[in-house]
Fold these 2 entries.
Entry 1:
Amino acid sequence: MINATYAIWLRHMRKFTRNREELGGLLIQPILWVALFGVGMGRMLPDQSNYLSFMLPGILALTALGGAAGGGMMFLDERLRGILREYMVAPIPRLSILLGHMCATVSKAFFQIIIVVIVGVLAGAQLGGGVVGWLATLIALICFTLGFAGIALGVAARSKSIMGYHGMIFLFNLPLLFASNALYPLDSAPVWMQWLAKANPATWFIDVARSSTQSTDMSTNLLNLGLLLGFAVAGTWLALRRFNAVTAN
Amino acid sequence: MIDAQGLHKQFGTVQAVIDLELHVPQGSVYALLGPNGAGKSTTINMLTTLLRPDRGTIVIAGHDAVRNPDAVRRVIGVTFQDLVLDRDLSGREALDFYGRLYGLDAATRTQRTKELLTLVELNDAADRLTGTYSGGMRRRLELARCLMMQPRILFLDEPTQGLDPQHRAMIWDYLRMLQQQHGMTMLITTHAMDEAEILAQQVGIIDHGRMVASGTPAELIGQFGSDMVRITANYPADYQPSWLQAEWVRNWAIQNGELRVGVDHGSRRIATILDGLRADGLQVSDMNMTRPSLGDVFLQTTGRALRDEVKS
């Protein structure tokens, strides 16, 4: 089980580090977000570095979402090209195939997230919080990415084409961020949107990340972490269910 | 080694495989022939545990494929019709990864990868990405991949599709060597009758999900007698040449404006057949005589010539 998961993860990592286009794209994307959106928006506000600190968790969430979508894409590509069947005829648990892909997805997202943090700090974001805060953010981020990787893999397990997959994924990528506290505080949003945002895993993650790194009110962190953990399990479960439905007919 | 009985598979309202039976003894090669959509892929997917049959039993090397798929997966090697090689890995990495997936240790992986690359003569290209390989090289690498775990049974779906004659012959040589030197049991699907005749001891023809003919190539071809006379003429739609009910006629059919008669001795009977057609007032436009082949068996049982297959 662990061996097969590791083998699949390793295969993706080797392909990833070899693919200059993918590496470059993943590197540039977060830099653009911080540099263009963060700095640009920040200029409209009186205290620039504060907005950047405020929205950096949002960019982290966006990066994780993008990573999850990319992970689903990678899985879909292997499925459509038939590579998946190579795993299927091997005496390995079906769950390990899924976990291998999810781990690879999270690893790639992490690579990006480190870049985002570095670029963000260089651009003037102020991050505090200490070890506990960082650890909480890290766990929240892993759960958040796993949950969405599960959803993306679940969609990819059924999609008939790459176009169809993109259609589905874009539905919940950017709008998900707009319906959260990623880019603006929710206090000024209408009530229905506040409720929508509260049911949004992106908000849970951003709450943890923001309160931990800004050392503000951390009272809801445990609740949010619990919700995120549930989300990760639900995402994995969904992916496994859809995956089994497709492969075991 | 491969025993399937009463196999059924239905997709929605389409009956993909109906009451299929198939037995392949240890060390022999079985060729599954059939037009596209006949149920070959569904059958091979069920035999290789990728698909669960609705009904029926599959026993592979003593293991029940439905109840104990992992045991079956451990003893089989499978290549797919559409190549599954990852273009972003080198040939050596592809084999190494496959061994890793099965939990082989590093030393064994290195050793086997080396042996297999030598076997399929890919040593020089081993460290190039498979995306740069030619079709023949990829087929060879696929063959090496499915041998990586030293399987006892190979399932090869269209092992030479899309290859030029030289590379086909090369793959055939490997397969024959595997059978003769390693006693490998194999089930192949193919469109190519020559491939089945050359490689297989047993042949099954499948059409619309049913096994329509099976036996040794000699048995199947034998039902046509020793010669096959083909005559093109302006046959009416319901033409019934009653004079063909003779003891020297093994078998006859009219398809696509061509009358084919399997006879005991072609050169002796051809004049009789021509006389019969003329007596019925038909204009003969073309005629020839060949040894019957599996292609004739295929045409007879499925009503489709192999030429049609190539197009689809």
Note: The interface with chain B takes residues 3-4, 7-8, 10-11, 14-15, 18-19, 81-83, 85-92, 247-249 of chain A (CB under 8 Å).
Entry 2:
Amino acid sequence: MTTAYATSTTWIDACASSRLHTDDGIAVLLPGGRQAALFRTRDGHLYALDNIDPYTGAAVLARGIVGDRAGTPTITSPLLKHTFDLRTGHSLDSPHVRLTTWPVRDTGTTVQIRTPLAAP
Amino acid sequence: MKELVVIGNGMVGHRFVEALLDRDRAGHWNITVIGEEPRTAYDRVALSSYFDGATAHDLSLGDLTGPRVTVHTGERATAIDRAARTVTTSTGRTLTYDRLVLATGSTPFVPPVPGHDLPGCHVYRTLDDLDAITDRARGARTGTVIGGGLLGLEAANALRLLGLRTHVVELAPHLMPAQIDQGAAALLEHLVTGLGVHVHTGTSSTAVRPGPTGHAAHLDLDNGTRLDTDLVVFSVGIRPRDELARACGLATGERGGITIDDTCTTSDASILAIGEAAHHRGTVYGLIAPGNAMAEVAADRLTGGTATFTGADTSTKLKLLGVDVASFGDAHGRTPRSLDVVVNDAAHHRYAKLVLSDDATTLLGGILVGDAGAYATLRPMVGSPLPGDPLALITPHGAPPPGAHTLPETAQVCSCNAVTKGDLLSAIAHGAHDVPALKACTKAGTSCGSCTPALAQILTQAGITQTKALCEHFPHSRTELLEIVRATGTRTFSALIASHGTGNGCDICKPAVASILASLGNGHILDGEQASLQDTNDRHLANMQRNGTYSVVPRIPGGEITPAKLITIGEIARDFDLYTKITGGQRIDLLGARLEQLPAIWARLVQAGFESGHAYGKSLRTVKSCVGTTWCRYGVQDSTALAIRLEERYRGLRAPHKLKAAVSGCARECAEARSKDFGVIATDKGWNLYVGGNGGFTPRHADLLATDLEESDLIRHIDRFLMFYIRTADRLQRTSAWIEAMDGGLDHLRDVVVHDGLGIAAELEAAMERHTATYTDEWADVLADPDKLARFTTFANAPTTPDPTITFTTTRDQPVPTTPVHLAMPTTRP
């Protein structure tokens, strides 16, 4: 994780709980202009990682397919099908590529992401 | 560099040059080919398909190309000067050679009966012969083939396809005396008589008599019969073309043929002979497989090899007049004290005979008529110990035939290309790990294809697991999953993976299952859980582009559009600032739409009477057409109207892969229908249906499936074809690969689609009816459903904010993505 988290973070509202369907991502605009792709998997876990596919530069990961590889929960980019570990953001195709991840929680009515107050 | 001259550009001559080019990597030989026909080599074995819709282009074996090859067509060699080592040709050209290869082939033998040279008398050997027969058949009613052998029956089929009442006259007591015995011939005669062919055996022609116009009109037989016939085709045998060789003093056989030794060398060490022109150890081979074997030996010898030709397998398997006939090994039981095992089931149209050694342990040969399915297993077993009870091998519903794993390494698996099991195992050891790779590197299975199932068995035996598992989550193939879904009535991915899979799925199995569910009719593709299964484009009903924007391609059925609608498309593109481009499928592509703009664009299209179109997804794309009889002075049918009807019938149909189609209004084929999964070409009697074509990485022309269909029949055939494809193809398998991988190939497909050989045609048609009855405009459905509409916002927490990473620049007056794609934030780290 980046050092920015240690300084000043806050939980921001991403969407209503009912809006985030299982295995069906949505994109969220973060303060400072970054974008998170938000997912809820079948076991109820929530994940948020950078929405931008680092291989193409397009902000599309929220529109990818959620699944697993040998038990690792994954998201596959809709563009060139690169696959990432939902928990860590690591690319399964190249160990040097890793997406930023953010903590997520569901308050019961709202899904929230914890982000730095300003852009790092 | 040394000079090589090849006289003859038939199949064997062509194969020889290919084989030589393959081996002569260092470029020692400069090759000149002389062919007397006006065209380059073509597939003479498939000649009769010319009457079934194939063109000269389809039959062509392709051009011999290379910096060191020159081919002269329409030019005949007239003399060989062995002392000077020169060849003179009909154009006066003189060619000098270091080595000369004679691949002059053969000529049909015409018996010298009175009237044999009347107009209306033909032979059946070249495309020119076929054109002459076709011309003569116009206005003719009856045709007679003299000769009831393999080629004679091919010719009889041609006459039948030309619409003639057809007779076959055979001197021997039964049909195909060279390949099959009396019992087999009796069944064959019964089956071809059922097709309307009149068979006369044990009799010969004594004279062809002219009618009042001087053309052939009657044929007298030695049994006193006089047949009325407008056309006579002689097909009683072949004679090697050895006249050039005789004239220059080369040794020839007593009954013709240029004498060669085991190295394919003639009595002159500088001259080789191959194919039907050659006479080897007392035999002239009239089949392609021995010719190919000689071509390979000759090419090997000319490049320093030590290969030998020691005789060849004359096994054959073919479909004559729609009847399977196969003959292999010692089919006639000429081996002393050999034993026969025969199943003669005339009621079920099957005859099978095995010839065994005197102790009944070794297979020597056999004959199959009616059902030659066992040929691929039995033929390579010749000379090997039998794996079990011989009767069980040829009894239907008996024990399944033993696989290729029982064969010794020396057994020839592909007789067309002389590939042994040892060759295949060696190729597998060098990395050919699936059937296509094996075919590519050994040529096995690339001619008649009958050994393809054996290739798969040998891969398995070599320990190569050809897994059919879709991915780690399902051990099943797509076809199996489809059957599971059909049988169990499962309607969700969650239920399917819980009952038949493991884990949570992935980008392979989710779209595959989504496609299966959609093919079987499961409501809107974005209903409920299905939305999360859909692949990139289906997920938002538009084509995602590299920068995350989408293209919208309004459906323009058949490519026909009014000026008003054309203007509307222009207005929409202008209003949303979209880049426009004309597509290859007769549509207009509108690019650069942001996710949240899609519903507004669709609404404008719906308002103007359009629907957005499937320019994406594994579904029907377009049905392209020409203007047909409405405008074109050459058109013979209304291709545009048919294309519109087909596109509207099959739109929205989800399949294992994309489906493209086209309709051409005449044989000029301006709609390029033969490059499509299904292509329709007008004839003056109806429509010809072609299937299995594609462009792309490996372009392939579609094959003719059925001819002269009425529109309603045509649509029934396409319904069956598409549904059979959807039911049985693998994931992402185009129709071409599906047909090529199918056991029995195009013949089997025709049997299922045209003749309803599996008895499933009604069910396939009903499935298509369900599809057409339930089709709705998927994009209009989204506009009418707030839940689905909610998917079309970029940011859940900022619905009115566009994606800031999407930017455009202007190129040639249109917006295009800023390149390189702007990376808004660094997201990767070392």
Note: Chain B has five domains: 2-107+240-302, 121-236, 315-402, 478-534, 543-774.
